[in-house]
Amino acid sequence: MSAGPARIYADWNATAPLAVEVRDAMSEALDGPFGNPSSAHAEGRRARDVLSAARRDVARWLGARPSEVVFTSGATEALNHAITVLGSGHAVATAVEHSAVLEPIRAMERARRLALTLVPVDDRGSLDPEQVATALRPETTLVAVMRANNETGNLYDTLAVAQILRQRAPRATLLVDATQAVGRIETSLDGLGADVVAVSAHKIGGPKGVGALVARGRPLDPLLRGGLQESGRRAGTENLLGIVGLAAAARLAPCVEHLVALGQLLRRELDAAVPGLIVHGEPDASARLPQTTSVRFPGFDADSLLIRLDALGVQLSAGSACTSQTRAPSHVLSALGLSPEAAFETVRISLGRTTSPEEVYELVARIARAVQLEREAVVAHRPKSLTSAQRSRSTK
Ligand code: PLP
What we know:
Layout: E1 8-9, H1 20-30, H2 42-62, E2 69-72, H3 75-86, E3 89-94, H4 99-110, E4 114-119, H5 129-135, E5 140-144, H6 158-168, E6 173-177, H7 189-192, E7 196-200, E8 211-215, H8 229-232, H9 240-250, H10 256-273, E9 278-279, E10 292-296, H11 302-311, E11 314-315, H12 331-335, H13 340-344, E12 346-350, H14 357-381, H15 388-394
Helix pairs in contact: 1-9, 2-9, 3-4, 5-6, 10-14, 11-14
Bound molecules: pyridoxal-5'-phosphate (PLP).
The site of pyridoxal-5'-phosphate (PLP) has 13 residues, from helix 3.
């Protein structure tokens, strides 16, 4: 019998390995023009051509115009940018937005520049667009609804929200965090109905530290000032190598069917191997990112399971990677109504384009093994049952 892959990476929503095609494009760019794209001389012009070609590719990928694409250091910067320059008055955001949306809004709320209304989700994490409508006020300027949740994988119908805004708050900007959606499921900006979109390269096989802010129609004011790069919308010499990597990731062929098949296989195998587990999120597979599974192992601490799994060569995360350094329960799982205890028993499994079915079988076998080891450890450390004399003493 084969020993199976030594290491299984199942944390693609935290970050994806660099795709081979991206590595090739970046290696080539390393030997390409080194000039500053803002320089007037030939080396600068060559670098500017590389930048323009990358912008065209990213724009085509998103169904946007090249002039609408502003390269950033990632989705966090893009979201902070949009919120900081757009937000004043009143903002509406779903309770499950990434902290890169919620934290800048809260900071502006503390500075009394903005009031926030959070829109709840139900116990599946689903959003009723009408709840967004209810939260609108005459002074609402910003509405933030993510396309795909990083923890549960739930998809949100941003187009329905856009239609509501068109009728009831035509001056409000719809900001869509598409970080986990683009490059995974088919998503063009038209399908999102968004005014402003944030994307990131490293979730889809590109390098870390690069992303884009796409504002349809009217350009946004800059957040970073001090230079005329990006047509005056984001100062600072461009991360050309990273941008080449983002464009190469954007050119990767979609692999939705592969991800759907992996997701189905994982769910089937997990249910069979570990009875009693509870999968969170939207049960309708077409309403979720196919490769994301948020699953609770009742009675087992997720952090302990993750340590065991790491030792068994499996990388997963508890809740989202961004919150895994704190011991507070994930705000996303809390928004679904999970108790802190249930949230601390939840892990996120996220697969990607190079995950194979063999890896999924092996992943499930190792998860079942980790659960078994945890169970044995709990039994070994359980205090021996008390004698009746001890019991009567202990109740005094
Ligand atoms: N939004 C979502 C939904 C995410 O999952 C992440 C990353 O975890 C971000 C935003 C931040 O992206 P970046 O790492 O590019 O700043």
